[in-house]
């Protein structure tokens, strides 16, 4: 009567849910980063723009620097918080 579903018994689902939430958090952080720099610095008159490496500062910080920051952040998060999970059914059916 009190049978658990396979999703409740298998710890891989709990790991997958945690990692999916971390992924959503990274996507939200990336969007906020991009939006803040793109519209925060790019919302003024183009004659007032400052330039970094020949690119408008809003574009450089939102698109170029944002990619670098996100690549470093994703690398760190995956190494620190993600778990290597086997996809074999036999390992978890015995538990």
TrEMBL record:
UniProt xrefs under InterPro entries: DUF997
A Pfam family recorded for this sequence: DUF997
Species of origin: Sediminibacillus dalangtanensis
Assigned keywords, A-Z: Membrane, Transmembrane, Transmembrane helix
PANTHER family the record matches: INNER MEMBRANE PROTEIN, INNER MEMBRANE PROTEIN-RELATED
Protein name, entry field: DUF997 family protein
Transmembrane segments: 20-39, 59-78
Top-level taxon of origin: Bacteria
Signal peptide as annotated in the record: none
């Amino acid at each position: 009567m009190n049978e658990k579903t396979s999703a409740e018994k298998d710890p891989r689902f709990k790991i997958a849910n945690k990692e999916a939430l971390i992924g959503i958090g990274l996507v939200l952080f990336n969007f906020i980063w991009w939006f803040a720099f793109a519209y925060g610095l790019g919302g003024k008159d183009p004659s007032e723009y400052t330039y970094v490496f020949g690119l408008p500062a809003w574009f450089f910080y939102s698109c170029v620097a944002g990619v670098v920051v996100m690549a470093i952040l994703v690398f760190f998060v995956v190494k620190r918080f993600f778990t290597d999970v086997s996809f074999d059914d036999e390992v978890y059916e015995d538990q």
